[in-house]
Amino acid sequence: MDAVLTGRIVEVTQEPVTGMSGDDFAAPEGRVPVDVRILDVRSRLKHFEGEVHCAVPALVPAAMECVARRTAERVNALWPRD
């Protein structure tokens, strides 16, 4: 079966995480929610539709990498390799 993965970045935020002493010098937190759909190419049947999101104590690129890993995990759960 051939499938296509589509998605839309809902929001990208990067905020400093306030440290315990109230300062803003702690590591930033990157947050990225992405709407994802996996469609069968021939039938256009949706195999998955939902939001994949990550909030990580790092910059936005690390959050995007986290979203990509979680999306790959969802795809692997739908079509496990033999």
- What structural class do you assign from the helix and strand content? alpha+beta
Return the average pLDDT rounded to an integer. 80
Shape: elongated
- Helicity, in percent? 10-25%
Order of helices and strands: EEEEH
**Low-pLDDT runs:** none
Q: What is the number of strand segments?
A: 4
Q: State the helix count.
A: 1
Kindly give the count of domains: 1
Q: What integer value in Å does the Rg equal?
A: 16 Å
N-end to C-end Cα span: 15 Å
- Proportion in β-strands: 35-45%
**Main sheet specs:** 4 strands, antiparallel
Please tell me about this protein's structure:
9% of the residues are buried. The protein has 82 residues and is α+β, with helices and mostly antiparallel strands. A hairpin with a 5-residue loop joins strand 3 (28-40) and strand 4 (46-56). The longest helix has 19 residues, at 60-78. It has one helix spanning 60-78; strands at residues 3-9, 13-16, 28-40, 46-56. The protein contains one helix and four strands, in the order ββββα. The protein is elongated.
Chain-wise SSE layout:
Blueprint: E1 3-9, E2 13-16, E3 28-40, E4 46-56, H1 60-78
Antiparallel strand pairs: 1-3, 2-3, 3-4
Give a nutshell description of this structure.
With 82 residues, this protein is of the alpha+beta class.
Q: Notable features of this structure?
A:
82 residues; alpha+beta; 4-stranded antiparallel sheet; 4 strands; 23% helix
